[in-house]
Structure formats: structure tokens, C-alpha cells
From TrEMBL:
The keyword Hydrolase applies. It comes from the Bacteria. The keyword Hydrolase applies. One of its GO terms (molecular function) is 8-oxo-GDP phosphatase activity. Belongs to the Nudix hydrolase family. Residues 5-132 form the Nudix hydrolase domain. This is NUDIX hydrolase. Transmembrane segments: none annotated. Pfam families: NUDIX.
Length: 152
């Protein structure tokens, strides 16, 4: 969702057996860039629901959001002002099914390996590195800090 020039984005680190799932994007703004499952929040959508939806759309997995590493405010590689809500999740269902027109590859890697990628291989590399450092140092917050969207 874009509001006043600000793009609201959700991102999820899916962790299993000390590895994280990364995807290689095929979107015009991020061709051949590795990232975590992520995408824009849709108009009127709850942040937590948006995160689960994006994971399902990009990977085929259903996830439970366990915690958050926080909110990241930055200018993207495409010069958009982004506010990104990042979560850590676990797989609770589904199976890996990559959406071929948007995602061209996926792989499980150790969390440490994310720090070894070249900057030009990652989408918004500085933010991914901040997220990776937070995960490695277990700097997490409860998802209860995100109140469910209220309907009026």
C-alpha cells in the first residue's frame, strides 16, 4: 500500500532447522535479487494478515508469526520511502510452490550465510543485513505489539 508516497511492506523470515528460506525475485524492480518473502500491505489489510498472505502467495507455505525483529524505515533501491514490518515465522502447513512469474528460485540457507552475499545480490541489502543481525543476536519483540485492526 502506498500512502503519501510511503510504501507499507511486510517481510517474513521463515526459519526451520536453523535455516532461513530465501527467494530470488523476478519483479521489474528486483530481477535476480535474493530476499525474504515480502510484499506490500493492501488497502484496509491487517499487518499480521498481510505477512501471512505474502508468504502464502510467494512460497505456498502457511505460517504462524512467532515474533518480530521490528519496523524498518528506509529508502528502497528504487528510491521509494518504505516502512517495513519484519516477522519471524514457522511453517504450519502448505508446501513449497514458487510463483514462477514473480519468483525464479528459492533455497534454504543458514542464517549466517545471508551475511556472505554480495550487496548487489540482495534486495535492499542494508535492511536485510540489519534483519539478519537481529535474528543472529536474538533481538526479538512480541507480535502482540501489533494490535489487530479494528473495524468501525
Amino acid at each position: 500500500m502506498t500512502q503519501n508516497g510511503i510504501v507499507l511492506v511486510v517481510s517474513v523470515s521463515i526459519i526451520k532447522d536453523n535455516e532461513v528460506l530465501i527467494i530470488k525475485e523476478n519483479k521489474p524492480s528486483a530481477i535476480n535479487k535474493w530476499n525474504m518473502p515480502s510484499g506490500r500491505v493492501e488497502q484496509g489489510e491487517d499487518i499480521l494478515n498481510a505477512a501471512c498472505r505474502e508468504v502464502k502467495e510467494e512460497t505456498g507455505y502457511d505460517v504462524n508469526l512467532l515474533k518480530t525483529t521490528g519496523v524498518y524505515n528506509f529508502f528502497s533501491d528504487t528510491n521509494h520511502h518504505v516502512i517495513l514490518f519484519h516477522f519471524v515465522g514457522e511453517i504450519i502447513g502448505g508446501s513449497l510452490q514458487i510463483v514462477e512469474n514473480e519468483i525464479i528460485d528459492s533455497k534454504w540457507i543458514s542464517i549466517h550465510e545471508l551475511l556472505q552475499f554480495e550487496k548487489n545480490e540482495l534486495r535492499n541489502a542494508n535492511v536485510l543485513r540489519q534483519i539478519t543481525e537481529a535474528i543472529l543476536h536474538q533481538k526479538f519483540f512480541s507480535t502482540t505489539c501489533f494490535n489487530k485492526q479494528l473495524t468501525i
